[in-house]
Every structure is written in structure tokens, then in C-alpha cells.
TrEMBL record:
Stated name of the protein: D-beta-hydroxybutyrate dehydrogenase
Pfam families for the chain: adh_short_C2
The keyword Hydrolase is assigned to this record: no
GO molecular function, one term: 3-hydroxybutyrate dehydrogenase activity
Signal peptide: none
Family per record: Belongs to the short-chain dehydrogenases/reductases (SDR) family.
Keyword Oxidoreductase: yes
Keywords carried by this UniProt record: Oxidoreductase
EC number: 1.1.1.30
UniProt xrefs under InterPro entries: 3-OHbutyrate_DH, NAD(P)-bd_dom_sf, Sc_DH/Rdtase_CS, SDR, SDR_fam
Database matches in PANTHER family: 3-OXOACYL-(ACYL-CARRIER-PROTEIN) REDUCTASE, 3-OXOACYL-[ACYL-CARRIER-PROTEIN] REDUCTASE FABG
UniProt superkingdom: Bacteria
Amino acid sequence: MDLKGKTAIVTGSNSGIGLGVVRELARAGADVVLNSFTDRDEDHDLARAIGDEFGVTARYIRADLSKGDEARKLIEDSGRCDILMNNAGIQHVAGIEDFPTERWDAIIAIMLSSAFHTAAVAVPMMREQGWGRIINLASAHGLRASPYKSAYVAAKHGVVGLTKVIALETAQDPITANAICPGYVMTPLVEDQIPDTMKKYDMDRETAIKEVILERQPSKDFATVEQIGGVATFLCSAAAAQITGTTISVDGGWTAR
Ligand code: NAD
């Protein structure tokens, strides 16, 4: 795999899956743009460290993806966009009657609307450059529902639908658009759910993970961020040039059930 000369922008990439994907794309030679909305010194140090480790250009650009104009500016300020991965995400768990409106709005904005805004700027750039790969990080929850995750499930189903539309609109361009649908990957987003799950079910950590969190994942194991990065890298390969408008599940058998 040789992605030298390509620039990859990965949203929400100072931790978890996004960081794993950035590292795998950089390992394949791509220049990378990291993003989050925290803008701490460590975010810039992280970009520098990745650049040094893989011998690529790595930059950090702060953008709050809950705001459409900042999502668009992220792509514009990157100057070039060959690979776009929409990955930033947040979660909230509550029944529909108690779901805070501001959390609904934030989840839809960060996970769904930002993917629309970034693609709106990236697609014309990719057309002009003559090559492009759009990879949207959806979820098994983009294909299956779970109770108490209304905004997350709605946003991820929306991301899958949006991906298919982008694929159809770019089908005759050298551009592909696909969604990766992981089951559970051990990242800070999942780590945050563990204490509440332990408390709610009065379980120790290991039991809460196996019996509640991984309940629907037949493999009973988490995917790794490197595995998600590997799938993203594959989608950028020549072998994947005709793969567009589809979902690739990395879910230990969850959606096979
Ligand atoms: P994470 O918390 O490590 O990463 C989320 C990222 O989003 C962080 O980098 C954070 O800074 C960024 N972010 C949050 N709000 C933002 C905003 N307003 N603007 C810009 N960036 C923002 O969690 P993760 O598990 O790595 O999640 C990454 C993606 O993978 C999410 O879309 C999540 O829904 C999806 N996903 C995760 C799992 C899993 O099991 N971890 C499974 C399926 C899908």
C-alpha cells in the first residue's frame, strides 16, 4: 500500500479509532490532518510525533464539528483532501422521554451533519484532483437499533444513508464513498460506559464487559483501532476502486445474527 502524496483528513482523531486510522494511513505514507475541538498543546505534539514516526507531514487543525461552518473550514484550511474520514462522535444513553434536546442536537450535528458539510467541500476538491476516498465511520448501530440510544442510532443510520447518496453522486468520478460499521472497539467512548454499566447491573468490570457491553457481539472480543485503520487503508487501495456505496461491518458477527 502506497499512499505517498495523498492527504488524509480524519475528524475526531486525537484519540480512539480516529487516531488508530491516522496512524495506519500515515504508516501507508499518507500526509495526515488530525482534528478535534480541544486544541490542547498535546494535540499538536501528537501530530508532530506521528509525522516524525512515519516520515509524513502531520498537522493538527482544531474545528468544532458541531458547527457546520467549522466543519467546512476544516476541509478548506487543509488545502488538499484525497482521503476524508468522518469519524468524530459522542454518545448519550437515555430513554426517549428523558433524552436532553441539546444532546440530541449535538449528536446529530457532530456525527451526521458534519459528514454532510465536510463532503460538500471535499467532493469538488476530489473531482478536481482526480481521485478521492470518503470513508464514514458509522457503526453496527447504523444497521441495527438498540434502546436508549435514539440520537446515536438515528445519526448512524443517517450516516449510512448519506454515504450511499454520496457514492451515487460520485459513481462516475474516480471517487468512492463507503461506511465502516464497527461493533465494539475499546476506546475512551466505550471505556466511559463501563462504570455506569457496572453500577447499573452491580457487576465487576470483566462481567459487565462480557455480559452487557459485548452481549450482542458473538466474538465476545473488541475490535482494535489498528483493525479499523487496516480496513480504511484497504478502502484506499486499488483493489477497492469499485467498492462504493457499501457498508463494511467489523463487528465480530453482531449483524450476522
Ligand atoms: P473517542 O471518544 O475516542 O473519539 C471521539 C473523537 O471525536 C475524539 O477525538 C473527540 O475529540 C472527537 N470529537 C467529539 N466531539 C467533537 C466535536 N464537536 N468536534 C470535533 N471532534 C469532536 O471514541 P471512538 O470510540 O474512537 O469513536 C470514534 C467514532 O467511532 C465515533 O463516531 C463512534 O460513534 C464510532 N464508533 C465507535 C465504536 C466503539 O466501540 N468505540 C463502535 C462503533 C462506532
